[in-house]
Amino acid sequence: MAWPYGQRTGGGVNRDQKVKEVEVLKERFQKAKALIFAENKGLKVSEVTELRKKLRVGNSSLKTVKNRLVKRALKDIKVEGLDNFFDGPTTIASSEVDPVSPAKILVNFIKDHESLVIKGGYLGGEILSLDKIKSLAALPSKEVLYAKLLACLLNPARGLVSVLAAMPRQLVTVIDAIKKTKET
């Protein structure tokens, strides 16, 4: 689901647009597997566009939000303890698919763009500190984890096949040894 952009009239957003934005934020927060809150002071438009593209490739999205609307949305869905993240210009990266993806992308993006600062995050009812987000970003991708799981599941079967294949080989070796002893 894309973030809607309200049309501005007369220098501000009217009440209906604010109510609509709060509803969209509530829906986004409820569907998201992970939310990462960042401060984007000093990022150029081209850098924000680059970050959005990277997030889109990772099935994630980015939205710069009005703090008081976010606080209202969080209050409505009864999520507490996140208010301290909404001070100053705030950007939210979220994903409905992969909780690790936005963390990985933001942590890697910050290496080249120090003006983006991660404030914290929210995952599965838990508030994430910067250290936890970095740990989350260090996790292997879902595909790598699936490959490791598959290898773990296949190893016992490989061992069984090896044992079963070794028995006829050993039988042939024993029969050959008996044949050689009888020939001598």
Describe the protein's topology.
Elements lengths: L14 H17 L2 E6 L5 H13 L2 E6 L1 H10 L13 E6 L5 H12 L4 E7 L2 E3 L1 H8 L4 H42 L1
Antiparallel strand pairs: 1-3, 1-4, 2-3, 4-5
Helix pairs in contact: 1-3, 4-5
Description:
This protein has six helices and five strands. The chain is of the alpha+beta class and 184 residues long. The chain folds into two domains: 15-139, Alpha-Beta Plaits (2-Layer Sandwich), CATH 3.30.70; 140-184. Strands 2-3-1-4-5 form a five-stranded antiparallel sheet, sandwiched between helices. The longest helix has 42 residues, at 142-183. The N and C termini lie far apart (83 Å).
Brief rundown of the structure:
The protein has 184 residues and is an alpha+beta fold. The chain has helices spanning 15-31, 45-57, 67-76, 101-112, 130-137, 142-183, and strands at residues 34-39, 60-65, 90-95, 117-123, 126-128.
Tell me, rounded to a whole number, the average pLDDT: 83
CATH classification class of the largest domain: Alpha Beta
Strand content: 15-25%
The tally of structural domains comes to 2
Radius of gyration: 27 Å
Q: Mind telling me which CATH architecture of the largest domain this is?
A: 2-Layer Sandwich
Strand order of the largest sheet: 2-3-1-4-5
Overall helicity: 55-70%
Shape: elongated
Q: List the uncertain runs.
A: 5-11
The CATH superfamily of the largest domain is identified as Ribosomal protein L10, N-terminal RNA-binding domain
Structural class: alpha+beta
